[in-house]
Amino acid sequence: MKGALWAAGFVGVLLLLNGLFTGTLVPGVAMPPYVLQVLCLAGINVILAVSLNLINGFTGQFSIGHAGFMAIGAYASAYVTVAWGDRFRAATGFLPEFARDGALLLFALAVGALLAAVAGFFVGVPSLRLRGDYLAIVTLGFGEIIRVFILNIDAVGGARGYSGIPKLANFFWIYLFAGITVLVVSRTVNSSFGRTLIAIREDEIAAEAMGVDTTRSKVVSFVLSSAMAGVGGGLFGHYLMYLHTNSFTFIKSIEIIIMIVIGGLGSITGSVLGAVLYIALTEGLREFSQYRMVLFSLLLVIIMIVRPQGILGHHEFRELFGRRRRAPVDPAPLPPAPGS
Amino acid sequence: MTTFLQQLVNGLSLGSIYALIALGYTMVYGVLRLINFAHGDVYMVGAYVGYYLSRRLQGKEPSLPNAILVMLGAMAACAIFGLLIERLAYRPVRRASRLTLLITAIGVSLFIENAAQLVFGPDPKFFPSLAPHAEFMVAGVRLTSEQITVIVVSFMLMILLRFFIQKTRTGKAMRAVSFNLDAAKLMGISTDRIIATTFAVGSALAAAAGVLIGMQIPKIDPLMGILYGLKAFVAAVLGGIGNVPGAVLGGLLIGTSEVMVVGYLSSTYRDAIAFGILILVLILRPQGILGRVTKEKV
Question: Which of A138, A248, B147, B285 could cross-link with A67 by S-S, CB 3.0 to 4.6 Å?
Answer without folding.
Answer: A248
